[in-house]
Fold:
Amino acid sequence: MTGGAFCLERRQGERVVALTGSPNVGKSTLFNALTGLRQHTGNWPGKTVTGATGRHVRHGQDYLLADLPGTYSLLARSPEEVAARDLLCFGGADAAVVVCDAASLERSLGLVLQVMEVQPKTVVCVNLMDEARKNGVEIDLNGLAQRLGAPVVGTSAGRREGLEPLMEAVESVIEGRADLHPVSADYPTAVETATALVEPVVGETGLPARWVALSLLEGEPGLMESLRMALGRDLREEEPVAAALEKAQQVLTKSGLTGPVFQEAVAAAQIRKGAALAREVMTTPGGGPRWGRGLDHLLTGRLTGTPAMLALLALVFWITIAGAQVPSDLLSKALFWVQDRLTDLFTYLGAPGWLHGALVLGAYRTLAWVTAVMLPPMAIFFPLFTLLEDLGYLPRVAFLLDHAFQKAGSCGKQALTM
Structure:
């Protein structure tokens, strides 16, 4: 059974619910709305990653909510993603809530499919519904629930809308009252064949056998170590599992699906399935989805993605530098005009030279220079990057640079800070 070092401390009779989702989907806002002041911050079990837990009481039943670090995928690379994956997979949660952004549902459904593979008792929370409606986006929540085989609840956490139906759905999946039949991504035939060979022999683990089989075939070292710690044994060393893995690898090798290619094939299948589901349940004004898909191909394509990225980032920097020149000059003249008036005041008052030098020529002049030089470009640069984030382009930059950064022992998410 799973648990051990990854489990959160729970009280008697308390139910543990893991809140997960991509960054900037309102997950922490939802967590704050549900837990209020009943929160605790500390390191996750076995990790040096800070996380938050909080308690929610509904109809006399206590719930321990874990606000997991934001992650785009359970194919974890950063310490935050590893902590989120390990607690979700091995932390003994009674249910999971995957928070999605209603305005960009397609980007979240790939993660939903991954979470449902490891935790069948999953509730999908489509957040920011108010913002989506303002932009003319409509989502068929019932249709999405039928296609996913899991409860789907629309919320606007900032306005505290939809919280009661969300917790009702969580209660229903924990108590077994919900009709759960989680959908799976359509993996390549070789992947399905290999999984079918391994799945029957993994034995009792407390985890879905299909997910365990896929994880063993992926063989990512970090995940294998976490799986070994959670189970207290290495499945790959057990004779039936080792024999099945050998046969499965032969199937994958014939199809050229080994190593990173296998991971890419699995991830691509999940992304395609999520995109297809989003297209079936979303309605956007002016035929948005087709136009958006064409733009997405342009911005992330093999031939066009990198040139488009370089051109767009160069445009951002040019606007920042050129646009900041005039306000910087005006601000500099204004602030140094004030410096001259302060000098006149100190002279009029007969202040000693050392005091004038320390306060006016030292402290004030330094502050004036920094303000005049830094404030205008910052006032332009950061809103532009915020706009790119809101439009969903920064995750695409991370995607484009992920392969190159992996070679340096990093990941694409760190490209923006670099």
